[in-house]
Write a structure and sequence with these properties.
heterodimer, A: mainly alpha, Arc Repressor Mutant, subunit A, 2 domains, 9 helices, 0% strand, globular, B: alpha+beta, two-stranded antiparallel sheet, 5 strands, 11% strand
Chain lengths: 181, 207
Amino acid sequence: MTLTDDLVKKCISNEPAAQKELYKQLGGKLFAICLRYTKNRAEAEDWLQESFIKIFTNLKSFKFEGSFEGWAKRITVNHILSDIKKQKNLKFTDELEENTLMVEEEAHSNITKDELIRFINLLPEGKKVIFNLYVIEGYSHKEIAETLNINEGTSRGQLAKAREQLIEIHKKYNRINERIS
Amino acid sequence: MSEYPEHIDQIDDFYRSQLADHEIEPPEDLWGKISLGVLETPSPEVKAAAARFTNTQKYLGLLAGAVILVTGTFYFYNHKQDAPASNRDTMPAIEQPVDQHEISPAEKEGATIKRITPSGQVQGKTNTPSSNTVNGESVIAPEASENPSSESKVEQPAIIPVTPEEKVDTTVEIKTIPKAPKEKVKFKDKLKKEYQDSTRKIFVPGK
């Protein structure tokens, strides 16, 4: 029995110490997922809080067949997607986000992981969601199409454009970085 | 940190390798909010039960209404009213009113009515109808109140005498029920008796 499975069993018994331990183990990973879908930190905190409440209240439905971490990540992503669909009408435009110039102000010589997340957040809303789901979460185009109620072709097309835009963003980032140095 | 890819085909692998297990420390106060939220949020079982109850609530209302209706109807048709201090035994006998009888059609037409009084005397009375018969035809006599002058007396038609053979016997005998002697009971005594009866029935059910 792994540490996480033991923790999960204790969490099912509503032990507060075990719940806090589980939060410590998974909180950082789930918060990183939330920040990949929004540039608004407060919104990401709300998503993390609501996701953890869902995880703790639905722990009994976990069957210990797969990885608990994967199960928790799936709950988080599903919650984020349902909230995005509820709040915003997901649009698949080609225009980059307005805060592109922020790269110029915060440019550094080395690209950190946080900057990669910032690059993703510069993508338009629809492309960002599809890129995250396909590349990092590992969804197939069919799953993405079912989740977002779009065609598989739309998913493929938006992903290809997202890749191109990420290359463009990086080139722009390099130009600014050279100018500074 | 590896170099950023310049080709589109390398983008996926680069981002996946960099961000797959990436962690960002959440704010410290977030755990407090989460633990509070877990305490306040009902479990899925409770939520499901509440949803089931909401769905069946309208049927429960209908069922309750039907039960009330059936019970009400049952009691309405099976209810026995027990009036205090009165039942068939204690109820006073209904007194037949004396000198009350229906006026028969023959009496209305002017037939001679014989009445036998309680003392055995026979009394006869002939009603005077407002119309007289002359040769089988009815002749209406003028009312005195309508024309009080002496002319009305002159124009009154003559009454033709009828022979005894032609006389039709229209005599009706009506026996008057003798008045029952009333028992003189004081009101105070009657009330006392009723009260005694009622208390005996209420508090001593065996008797």
